[in-house]
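// run 5 | inverse folding | seed 20
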């Protein structure tokens, strides 16, 4: 069994997300307003 199965599975779930629309929603709702380093985009990329 591959040790990176969890990360590749998570990547398959996150890949279909439309990042442009997600960024628009994040900006509109000001979700990353008080964050400095761990933004929504960075969180999704590191998983």
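// decoded
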């Amino acid at each position: 069994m591959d040790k990176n199965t969890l990360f590749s599975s998570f990547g398959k779930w996150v890949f279909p997300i439309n990042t442009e629309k997600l960024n628009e929603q994040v900006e509109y709702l000001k979700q990353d307003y008080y964050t400095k380093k761990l933004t929504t985009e960075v969180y999704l990329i590191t998983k």
